[in-house]
């Protein structure tokens, strides 16, 4: 589980599929790999964090790439 201290020190990466205007931004961190991938809404960085199993995150991102989803 990612703690508030972990969240503050984590390196968050903004999705390349997020739009450039500051909205619709998803961020994730590789800091908890290989077990989980924390995901958050960049507009609410102090809000809830979803922790996904790494295999689920991998399947999700692969599907997005395959289908060319952008929003």
Describe the fold and architecture:
It comes from Streptomyces bohaiensis. Residues 10-65 form the DUF397 domain. InterPro entries: DUF397. By secondary structure, the protein is α+β, with helices and mostly antiparallel strands. The protein has one domain (4-67). It is built from two helices and four strands, in the order H-E-E-E-E-H. Strands 1-2-3-4 form a four-stranded antiparallel β-sheet. The longest helix is centred in the C-terminal third of the chain and has 14 residues, at 54-67. The chain starts with a helix and ends with a helix. The mean pLDDT is 80.
What do the pLDDT scores average to? 80
The geometry reads as flat
- Bin the helical content: 25-40%
Query: What oligomeric state best describes the polypeptide chains here?
Result: single chain
**Rounded radius of gyration (Å):** 12 Å
Extended strand count: 4
Question: How would you sum up the major sheet?
Answer: 4 strands, antiparallel
Strand order of the largest sheet: 1-2-3-4
Can I get a quick summary?
By secondary structure, the chain is an alpha+beta fold. The chain is built from two helices and four strands; from the N terminus they run H-E-E-E-E-H.
What is the secondary structure topology, with strand pairs?
Blueprint (H helix, E strand, L loop, with lengths): L3 H6 L2 E3 L11 E4 L6 E6 L8 E4 H14 L4
Antiparallel strand pairs: 1-2, 2-3, 3-4
